[in-house]
């Protein structure tokens, strides 16, 4: 038992990646939900052995991209058509060609922000110390 008297988790070491893989399958089949595997190198197929599904990160990235595109559309429309109606390059007041860089840049910017933000939230970061690593090994 730890010094504080509260058990946070159980750790085990395995001699090989194959033994760790089979232990992960047994944990998954036993019905455990909140557990993790740590290895100094990636182990092929470990996600399937742990029973992990697809990541939610791509959904949040898509939402960020759509938000960026809509905000770029609103920005270009309000400033170029409603507030300051100026003819640019001989095009109509709200044309696609001169507005494309704004659409592209804001879509990429919001996608990057949503990806990094959701990555940190989904991984519960920043976390400077995890109680599981307070063991002698």
Describe this structure as you would to a colleague:
This protein has four helices and no strands. The model has no long low-confidence stretch (mean pLDDT 89). It is 53% helix and 0% strand. Helix 3 packs antiparallel against helix 4. It is mainly α.
Task: Briefly note the structural class of the backbone.
Answer: mainly alpha
Q: Give the averaged pLDDT, no decimals.
A: 89
Rg to the nearest angstrom? 25 Å
As residue ranges, the low-confidence spans are: none
The coarse silhouette is: elongated
State the end-to-end CA separation: 15 Å
Task: Say how many strands there are.
Answer: 0
Proportion of helical residues: 40-55%
The number of helical elements comes to 4
Biggest sheet architecture = none
- What proportion of the residues form beta strands (DSSP E)? under 5%
> Can you write the helix and strand succession as a string?
HHHH
Short structural summary:
The protein has 137 residues and is an all-alpha fold. It is built from four helices and no strands.
């Amino acid at each position: 038992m730890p010094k504080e008297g509260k058990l946070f988790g159980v750790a085990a070491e395995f001699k090989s990646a194959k033994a760790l893989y089979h232990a992960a399958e047994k944990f998954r089949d036993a019905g455990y939900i909140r557990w993790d595997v740590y290895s100094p190198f990636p182990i092929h197929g470990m996600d399937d052995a742990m029973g992990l599904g697809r990541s939610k990160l791509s959904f949040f990235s898509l939402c960020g991209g759509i938000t960026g595109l809509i905000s770029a559309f609103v920005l270009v429309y309000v400033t170029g058509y409603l507030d300051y109606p100026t003819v640019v390059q001989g095009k109509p007041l709200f044309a696609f060609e001169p507005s494309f860089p704004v659409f592209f840049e804001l879509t990429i910017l919001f996608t990057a922000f949503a990806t990094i933000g959701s990555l940190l939230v989904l991984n519960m970061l920043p976390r400077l110390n995890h109680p599981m690593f307070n063991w002698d090994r």
